């Protein structure tokens, strides 16, 4: 039964890709949680661990790319199979970026350690939990091939954007009260932006899953709540 | 001559992809130049034009993806041909992100218009010119398939990182002198970060071209000069 044999080999190779992507998703969610804990608790050991582990996610992405190239070269998948492979490549790329953002949050938390403590650093925790939750949900939708669950993740991104916008305003206001806070608050602004970008990448993964299911890009416009690029705050 | 006919059709389809990628590169370089001019000259009309034109780059990326899926599904390229197609997809993705960063610089320049003028805004011009130059060079390397030229672009990124780091420090210092400058300088910090990220994406394109030529990922470590995540500045 050569046909059955070929199908099985293809499925096995596809499973190798899926397992690599799942492991990237698991690691990335863990990195987000640890990065925000490091910044909130001023825990430099945990920050160092996050920075060191980022290399694992990068290495996994390289493995996904290698597996995708092998699948395309040897199995030349078509139609639905091809979409599944291309989606795997795109999602791995998004997960690698999420890992970079988490590592950058950890790096900035090390810098904050030498600066006056800013209570707003703890506001990273709920935003971090929200984006790690989006990532967990979208990776479950990856497993179940559930476009509705993916769309639900995409809708949550507007909440993250609003929380980021509120924190951005608070940080600007706090900076205006004392120049000694400017360095710390600047790093918190960039750390918060990184978390907001993680939400965007979880949303990109959700959109890729919808494309994987339907073969069509989404035409429904995404709700956006990040108004920070146009925000102005004036000192009292 | 069916074989020759197939080869020709493949080359034609590949050329469609290349022309779309080239057009994305040309538009992206133009958008960078206009975005930094808008921020330096406080030109809101130019900023609005950059924001409006970003959709063209997004639409071109969708066309590249469609063409890549067609090429993979119908032509199942192998080895070198497959690398060329995968590289096209990756490069289009980088160019789309570059377009987003340029549009965000333009959007922030609109916000700056309501704020006190900050002379440091003009420091965006040389950094913008440097990253637009890197992009122009790497797109020429795309055309000539020149890995050495691509590596030369990659080496220039450290200069951009250093210029960004210097500007970051100047902006923090400037903010500390007066709370009224904090909003404007924060947007300039994020705009400068966007330009630095454009340099990273031009570097990613250079690395993808090296992979396209050799089939191997680069193992030479990239020189990094962006030290802003660990930077601290204290008020006098």
UniProtKB/TrEMBL annotation, chains A, B:
UniProt keyword terms in alphabetical order: Cytoplasm, Phosphate transport, Transport
Domain of life: Bacteria
One record GO biological process: phosphate ion transport
Keyword Transport: yes
All residue ranges annotated as the PhoU domain in the record: 21-108, 128-208
Broad class of where this protein is predominantly found: cytoplasm
GO cellular component: cytoplasm
Entry's localization field: Cytoplasm
Quaternary data: Homodimer.
Family (UniProt): Belongs to the PhoU family.
Known function: Plays a role in the regulation of phosphate uptake.
Protein name: Phosphate-specific transport system accessory protein PhoU
Native species: Niveispirillum lacus
């Amino acid at each position: 039964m050569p046909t059955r044999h070929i199908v099985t080999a293809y499925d096995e190779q596809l499973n190798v890709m899926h397992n690599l992507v799942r492991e990237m998703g698991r690691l990335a969610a863990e990195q987000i949680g640890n990065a925000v804990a490091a910044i909130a608790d001023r825990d430099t050991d945990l920050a160092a661990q996050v920075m060191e582990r980022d290399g694992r996610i990068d290495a996994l992405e390289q493995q996904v790319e290698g597996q995708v190239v092998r699948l395309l070269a040897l199995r030349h998948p078509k139609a639905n199979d091809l979409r599944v492979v291309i989606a795997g490549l795109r999602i791995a790329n998004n997960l690698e970026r999420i890992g970079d953002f988490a590592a950058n949050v950890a790096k900035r938390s090390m810098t904050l350690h030498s600066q006056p403590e800013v209570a707003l650093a703890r506001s990273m925790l709920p935003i971090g939990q929200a984006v790690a939750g989006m990532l967990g949900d979208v990776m479950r939708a990856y497993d179940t091939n559930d476009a509705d669950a993916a769309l639900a993740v995409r809708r949550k991104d507007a909440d993250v954007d609003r929380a980021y916008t509120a924190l951005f305003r608070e940080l600007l206001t706090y900076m205006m009260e004392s120049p000694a806070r400017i360095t710390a608050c600047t790093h918190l602004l960039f750390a918060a932006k990184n978390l907001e970008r993680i939400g965007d990448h979880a949303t990109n993964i959700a959109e890729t899953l919808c494309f994987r299911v339907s073969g069509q890009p989404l035409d429904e416009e995404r709700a956006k709540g990040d108004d920070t690029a146009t925000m102005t705050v004036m000192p009292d």
